[in-house]
Fold this protein.
Amino acid sequence: MNVDLAMEFEEERSQSSDEAYAAVGRALTFATRLEAHCRVMAMMPAVKERFQKCRQTSEDEDQAIASVTAEYWYERRFRHHTRDVSQNYRLPENVKDMVGRGLKARNELVHELTVGLPEAIRTDAGRNEVLHHLAVLVEQLAEADRIVALLIHLENGDPLPSSERYESHIARAVAWVCEVED
């Protein structure tokens, strides 16, 4: 019996494994950004009470965040900014589902993606599959992030990002995380 087995981990490094681990690290950084934005939104005076009520009736905090974001998106904030925002941005239709998918992607990234990662990235095909899946997760994270970030801007009365930055947010996030230099 090998008593050292519990202390074993993948120590071999290569350019391709470093690229994959770097992409996972950047994705985790982006997931942390979404988490921080959700926490800020949940603490905003206009949202805090509704979030706490929703949390009492929801199964979990993520579901409460998605519900409150959707409510705030459709009913509260945008009724005062509908013209300005709708003229400059293509707005999503189902905010609750998008934020819910983003938070689910965050959970998958944080809790599941790295299980088995050393084996998966040993081959080019495995590494490409991991990066493709990572791109899907980051796309979902970025969709949720831009919704929550826009609401924070509106609530704080901050200048809104340009429509180009808003529209390119998802593609820029995926590129930042997943594009590796040859």
Q: What stands out?
A: The chain has one domain: 15-178. Residues 15-178 form one domain. The chain has seven helices and no strands. The CA atoms of residues 43 and 51 lie 8 Å apart.
